[in-house]
Structure formats: structure tokens, C-alpha cells
Amino acid sequence: MKQHSFEAQYEPQWQALQRALQARPRALDNQQLPVLYRAVCQHLALARQRQYSPALQDRLNDLVLRGHQALYGTRLRARGTFARYLLITIPRTVRQQWRLVLAAALLFYGLAGALTWLVAFKPDLATAFSSPAQLTKMAEMYDPSATHWGRARESAQDLVMFGFYISHNITIAFQCFAGGLFAGVGSLFYLGFNAMQLGVVAGYLIQMGYGRPFWFFVATHSALEINGLILAAAAGLRLGLALIMPGRLPRAEALRQQAAPAATLIAAAALMTFGAAFFEAFWSSRVDLPTAVRFGMAGTLWTLVPLWLALGGRWSAPDAD
């Protein structure tokens, strides 16, 4: 094919790609951009193979370079934006809301720790919080002779349990968050209720002699699940305070202004509960893991999570408004 025929046949596609690149960022949502980019890549290869004029090759090469940057450079920037959000924005927001996070943490760990100690020494107290049937079920779940620890498996597929744990964890986190709309009382209630459940179960299993499999099960994923739950409750409390203490602002405006930090906290909680579900399904329930490996992973997570929240973004440029 002669060069002039080649140009006449494909000029409309080249101009279409040129217009798409000039129209960014709207063009990035155009489904035709990848199609045009691949077509021009083929045209450039043909132009080089047929030794068309250097001017034509340079033009097509320029379009290909710009198209590559528009498609893949944007994807890299998107990944960079998510990494910044995860490593910088989330920890900064947690530190900005440290009073609410600390209050939620003290409530959860204080209540769970107190009930663990009380029930371990006075097991009869367990029936004041849970029915005998529930306590028996918990004992079966953490029987040292069980093939899996945690919830009973009707299916041997860990992937099934992964889906269950995601649903279960996110439901609890959402309750702690949405409860904030009831002047923050709902967030405190759901957080305290889950702390109570953990403490009662832990104390009951300890006095039965089942403490080892219980702690083996919860040690790793709890670093993400519990702290994610605390962040969800802090997000709910942020909204609750905006409703009951709006200052001089109308409540709707106060709620709007606090929506951004609350959204960041609940996003962090969602990511952490998702990670917790992964460990809970594929790692925590396994009985064949060596003790050193299991607690090595647990120690790693319990170290990294506080470090992430305490140090993330401290030496980076401030986020743009």
C-alpha cells in the first residue's frame, strides 16, 4: 500500500485519538481510547515495516507515546493515589481524631479485659451474659481436638468461610458506625456489646482449659478486626457529636463538615475487617500451624497496625484540600 493511501485510510482514527488526548481528563472515561491506542500502535508498526516517511513515523510515534501515558500513566497515578490514601491520609485522620479513637479503644479493651478476668475466676457469671446453649457451642468451636478452630464448617472450603467472615465483620462494623446517628449512643452500645461478648467467651474458655486454642485462633486476625471495629465506632461517634454538639452551625452543616473524617475512618475499618476476614478464614482456623509461626505473624500485625496509625504520613506533605 502506498503511503498516501495508508494515510487516507487511517487518518480519521489518528485524528480521533488526537482529539481524545486533547480532551483529557474527560477522554479517560471514553471507552474508545484503548481501542484507538491499540490501532495506532499497529499503524506505527506497519509504517516502520514499510519504511514510510520519517515525518509520518514520528507523528504516529508521538501519538502512541501520548496514548500510553494517558492510559497507563493514569493507572499508575490512581495506584499512587490509593497508596497515599492508605499510608498517609488514613493514619493522619486517625491521629486527628485521637480522642474519639482512644475513648473507643478504652471502652473495648477495658470492658473485654475486665469480663475476661471476672468470668475466668467466676464462671457462673457467664450465664448472665450468654445462654448455656451459646456457651456450649463456643466450647465446641474451640475444642482442642477439633479439626478447625472457630465457626463450624459445613464446607471444607476456606473460601466459603472467607465470604462469611467478610459479611459478619462488615455487619458489626456498620452497626458501630451507623449507631452514631443516634447521638453516638448506638456506637457505644454495639462496641460495648462486642467487647462484652469477647470477654465472656474468653473467660469461659480459659476456665474450661480451652484458652490455648482460643488465643491461637484470635491472636492474628484480632489485630485487624478489633482495631477496625474501634475505628468504625470512632467514625460513628464523630457523626454523633456533630449532631449533639454542632456549635454555632446548623446540625446538617455540622454533619456535612464531619462527614469527611468519618468516611476516612470507616474506610479504614472496612479495609481492616476485610483483611481480618482473610486471616480468619485461611490462617487463624488452621490447627497445623507451628506455635512460633502463628504468634510470629500475630506479633507482626499487632506491631505494624499501631506503627501504621501512629507514624503514617508524619513526614509527608499535607493532603490537598
Automatic annotation (TrEMBL):
Signal peptide: none annotated. The keyword Membrane applies. Keywords: Membrane, Transmembrane, Transmembrane helix. The chain crosses the membrane at residues 100-120, 259-279, 291-311. It comes from the Bacteria. The keyword Membrane applies. PANTHER family: SLR1478 PROTEIN. This is Stage II sporulation protein M. It comes from Amantichitinum ursilacus.
